[in-house]
Amino acid sequence: MAHLFIPGPTDVDAQVLAAQAQQMIGHRGADFQALFARIQPKLRQVFATTRRVYVSTSSGTGLQEAAMRNCVEHKVLCCVNGAFSERWYQVAVANGKDALRLDVKWGRAILPEMVNTALSAGGFDALAVVHNETSTGVASPVREIAALVRERFPDVTIMVDAVSSLGGVAIDFDDWGLDVLLTSSQKCLALPPGLSFAAVSDRALEKARRVPNRGLYFDFVDLEKHLLKNQTPSTPAISLLWALDAGLDRILAEGLANRFARHAEMAARTQAWAMKKFDLFAQPGYRSHTITCITNTRKLDVNALNAHLRGKGMQISDGYGKLKDTTFRIAHMGEIQMADLETLLTTIDEFSK
Ligand SMILES: Cc1ncc(COP(=O)(O)O)c(C=O)c1O
Fold first, then answer.
1. How far is the CA of 28 from the centre of ligand 1 (A)?
2. Which end of the chain is more exposed for a tag (fewer CB within 10 A), N or C?
């Protein structure tokens, strides 16, 4: 039974875990190249792209840094509607980028018209948005935002953080016209932490070639050069790549459409339960399929609840950042099945009655 109802790390299937226990191989040899080569088409399916997907030995924050360093030439508009989008703004500033915040109340989505107004001020060459705000349980309409940007601001590079949604929700990199789409291994992809992935458009890669100070570790131009040889610039986490290879097989065997439907059903069930027993933090119409942020209207002692759940082998999350004391969160992503969720909700009901 899956038991980690937290937004990462999530449970990892036993066979995927076991795949890590293989002997090391040299990362400049043919065995590695074969491994890396067979991972790439599977990743492209999950990202819905015919372009490249870079594999980074870092968590997702590393690729947020990569996006900022490679794709911001002049000024970036950072959409901020929660703790992780705020972090992305901080990454821009920490890398010396000229960044402007578009602040939206936590719990609300970033909408195309807001982006339109902000970009209309001019001077921007990049946009950063979080698809699924893990702190608030809000999913912003990235497809519509991207359509607006592609039409009205074609030179703006669209950088999307889908750390807590990719692999659980349909995101079509090519069809939506995105430029950078990044995620981490330890959430909906149900892999151990330590890897992150970014689909990068031809447009974004060409731009990177002329952006100075891209750094060394996350340089898209260097990643591309090595990807073409089925290699990485520096030593990758080989054990995690074995897990990735097995994990992607598992995801594709379930089928992406089935996987997305499973996440949507679990979200609907959790939301219905939460509305009956508590309240939902996210605005209607933009609620996440992978994490539900619940307003703790009954002032339930979440620490005590979690201690009780741990006794039964389960765990949920408290609120994040400024929502720590007023909300709690149930993640339903990765390996979690509806039956696991039912067990969790029943246990919470018994504890709180
Ligand atoms: C939406 C979002 N972005 C970025 C991050 C940071 O990812 P990582 O911890 O893999 O660096 C998280 C982590 O929870 C997240 O939820």
1. 30
2. C
